[in-house]
Design a protein that fits this description.
Layout: E1 10-14, H1 15-20, E2 24-26, H2 37-58, E3 66-78, E4 81-88, H3 90-107, H4 112-115, E5 122-124, H5 128-140, H6 151-168, H7 173-179, H8 185-194, E6 195-201, H9 208-217, H10 224-233, H11 239-252, H12 275-280, H13 292-311, H14 317-321, H15 325-330, E7 343-344, H16 349-360, H17 385-391, H18 397-417, E8 420-422, E9 433-434, E10 436-441, E11 449-454, H19 471-486, H20 494-505, H21 514-532, H22 535-538, H23 546-561, H24 565-571, H25 574-584, E12 594-597, H26 614-617, E13 623-626, H27 628-634, H28 639-645, H29 653-663, H30 670-689
Parallel strand pairs: 2-4, 2-5, 3-6
Antiparallel strand pairs: 1-6, 3-4, 7-8, 8-9, 10-11, 12-13
Length: about 700
């Protein structure tokens, strides 16, 4: 298809049409392909979600198209034909090319005919390696992945292949989509014909340098949460209420500081207190309003009294010059240095709004439920932000004030009882989980300063290992980190909703019982494990859900750090106990997302190593979890080489046990695989059989 007519400068196109006859070139000035697991998984899930929504509409004889953005191109014409130089949208375009190259051959060889001839449809100027990789994928599909030279393209192709294999192998769709995408032949068909891109061609002779300057300096469009704020605030007739709502909303958007820092400490003279004192108490560690009316009443009183105070504070220059040293130097704030800690939240503000809406609707969630058939309950994906708020019903002043209160309370609960990442000079902020509450610190030098301490510890400071000195503190932090490294996306954090719903249900949200919270989270973990747990799932190789490995690591850690010696000795053999005691004290949950065979699936034949039967290779006793980058470096190494070449201290506990045990024996053999697997399965079954006592909610 040629785009020569001026009327075709801007047109929606299906993915099939995009690649059917047109060719694209990524120019040298564009950055290399750089989409990560998060972006690729999001795209696959979005396509699948759109297909499922369209299937619902099909009952009304309406198949909906799904638009995934725009593609800006500069048309280059020569004797060889037309080539579209990609100006904007190359990351998405490259990912679509990878999907069409890899998926058909996995799901059905006949599907390759439906995707058309892809060779040469997308090239990279000046990057021979990337261009050759795309040619290999277009020609050989999945079998080319191990021969790709570009890390980004190889990683993306592997993620896409895994999603298609899950569908092909019949992996439970409901379980798979919670941690890994699931991409079927139906999804591919929908992608080809119903997923649309708006392709726009720049006018001939466009100065690209000027174009990029305009693109980089133009005003941004309103975000969905900004549109939502406007809709909610329009329901408030009172001008002061609108100002108060905006104050609470804006304060809650700042996720990298404790919520208390967003409210001033300057005393309102007519009230003899500050707005921070009014909302969070004199020690700044509790939420004093109990509902929306109380919160808006407090803010109204402060706002009105502040206006009255300002009328009486108009003083002349001579008054300033003769002001007492005390008042001039000390000021009214009294806490010039508030908590300086910078945190990384595990959720974005739009997703937080959906959690609050779900709390307001008083919904529940179970891991046994079907996320795709949730009975009209609030979905925790920010792409549904506006539609979910529109769906729940009429918005009035009372519901908006109540929502503002729940938003503030949820932020307080998150800041106090939910883990965050804290930046460190070592740069390991993605692994430095902290669980800290804010409080007012007083000293001889500082009368009032916001500080932070471990949420469930009696002392003011964290212990050296960042876990705190209290068993409840350690358990809650580790349990939450276990869920977080499993569900890495900021959207669809149903585990977080389960935490927040329970916290909201407690009588005193400022003084939560750490032991009760830990038992509740353990119960949630067991429910999720129970929904996934079958013998076939455990021995399914790389299809074993990541959560199974993470909950096993938590149970192994708990046996050493929390449980008594008797429980540990009853479950594990002497050698395993010794190895586990050596490893557990330094264990941290990290982003390990790749399932690895300890004894490789394809050992190096030149060195005389033989492959294992698939049922033994895919046995749970031969599996562990690690970061994807480490997996790509380790995957063909033999067990002893893996244990010796790479430090085990940063690995999962299951890997550390396997590494330690393999070094003590002549070889990692059938007996070791079955023995280790049986012990690990025993730990999981022990967790399922010994449900903690949980307080009702």
């Amino acid at each position: 298809m040629s785009t020569t007519a001026s009327a075709d400068w801007l047109r929606p196109m299906s993915v099939r049409d995009m690649f059917e006859s047109d060719s694209y070139r990524v120019p040298l000035y564009q950055r290399s392909y750089a989409w990560t697991e998060a972006e690729i998984h999001t795209l696959l899930r979005d396509i699948r979600d759109a297909r499922l929504d369209s299937r619902v509409q099909a009952a009304n004889h309406e198949t909906r198209d799904y638009y995934i953005g725009s593609l800006v191109v500069n048309t280059e014409r020569s004797a060889d034909g037309v080539v579209y130089e990609v100006v904007d949208g190359q990351q998405r375009l490259t990912t679509l090319f990878i999907i069409l190259s890899v998926v058909p051959g996995i799901l059905d060889k006949g599907l390759s005919e439906r995707t058309g001839k892809l060779s040469g449809r997308l090239t990279f100027e000046g990057r021979a390696g990337a261009g050759d990789d795309l040619l290999r994928l277009a020609r050989d599909g999945k079998s080319a992945i191990e021969r790709l030279s570009t890390d980004g393209i190889r990683h993306a192709a592997g993620l896409v292949a895994t999603a298609a294999e899950r569908a092909r192998d019949g992996v439970d769709e409901r379980a798979a989509t919670r941690t890994q995408p699931w991409f079927s032949a139906e999804d591919l068909g929908y992608l080809l014909d119903n997923v649309k891109i708006l392709r726009s061609e720049l006018p001939q002779g466009t100065d690209l340098n000027h174009y990029f300057e305009v693109m980089n300096t133009r005003g941004e469009q309103l975000e969905k949460h900004e549109i939502l704020k406007s809709r909610l605030i329009s329901a408030l007739d009172d001008a002061v209420d609108r100002e108060n709502f905006s104050q609470v909303w804006d304060a809650c958007t700042v996720l990298d500081r404790h919520i208390q820092t967003q409210f001033p400490t300057k005393k309102v003279s007519g009230l003899q207190t500050s707005v921070r004192d009014q909302i969070f108490g004199r020690d700044w560690d509790r939420l004093t309003p109990g509902n929306g009316d109380e919160l808006f009443g407090v803010l109204r009183d402060v706002r009105e009294q502040t206006a009255r105070d300002q009328v009486h504070e108009d003083i002349c220059l001579s008054d300033v010059l003769t002001m007492s040293v005390d008042r001039a130097d000390q000021g009214e704030n009294g806490d010039e240095e508030s908590d300086g800690s910078a945190y990384g939240a595990i959720i974005d503000f739009p997703n937080l709004l959906l959690h609050v809406l779900k709390v307001q609707q008083k919904e529940s969630f179970s891991w046994a439920s079907d996320l795709d058939d949730n009975g009209g309950e609030v979905r925790l994906e920010d792409k549904y932000l506006l539609s979910e708020f529109a769906r729940v019903g009429h918005i009035n002043a009372e519901s908006v004030r109540n929502f503002a209160f729940l938003l503030l309370k949820t932020r307080f609960l998150m800041d106090t009882y939910v883990i965050r990442m804290q930046k460190t000079t070592a740069g390991d902020d993605e692994e430095n989980w902290v669980l800290q509450r804010a409080f007012k610190y007083s000293s001889a030098k500082t009368k009032r300063q916001l500080s932070a301490r471990s949420t469930f510890s009696a002392v003011d400071q964290q212990a050296d290992d960042n876990l705190g000195d209290d068993a409840s503190q350690r358990r809650v932090l580790m349990l939450q980190a276990m869920f977080q490294v499993t569900d890495t996306r900021r959207a669809s954090k149903y585990f977080l909703y389960q935490f927040l719903a329970w916290l909201h249900s407690q009588e005193d949200s400022s003084r939560i019982d750490g032991e009760a919270f830990a038992r509740h989270i353990e119960s949630l973990a067991h429910d999720r494990l129970r929904a996934l747990y079958t013998e076939a799932t455990l021995h399914s190789g790389t299809h074993v859900p990541n959560f199974v490995f993470n909950v096993l690591d938590y149970e192994l850690w708990r046996l050493v750090r929390i449980a008594g010696t008797n429980e540990l000795d009853q479950l594990l053999g002497t050698d395993t106990v010794v190895a586990l005691r050596k490893s557990a004290s330094h264990f941290r949950f990290r982003y390990r997302t790749s399932v690895e065979h300890f004894y490789p699936v394809m050992p190096t034949a030149e060195q005389g190593h033989l492959g294992l039967p698939s049922e033994l290779s895919n046995h749970f006793g031969n599996l562990c979890i690690m970061s994807r980058s480490e997996n790509s470096r380790r995957n063909n190494l033999m067990p002893k080489a893996k244990a010796e070449e790479f430090a085990s201290t940063g690995q999962s506990l299951k890997f550390q046990l396997m590494a330690e045990l393999s070094l003590r024996a002549p070889e990692w053999n059938t007996d070791q695989i079955h023995t280790h697997g049986a012990e690990m399965v025993g730990v999981l079954e022990h967790a399922l059989e010994n449900e903690p006592d949980v307080l009702p909610w």
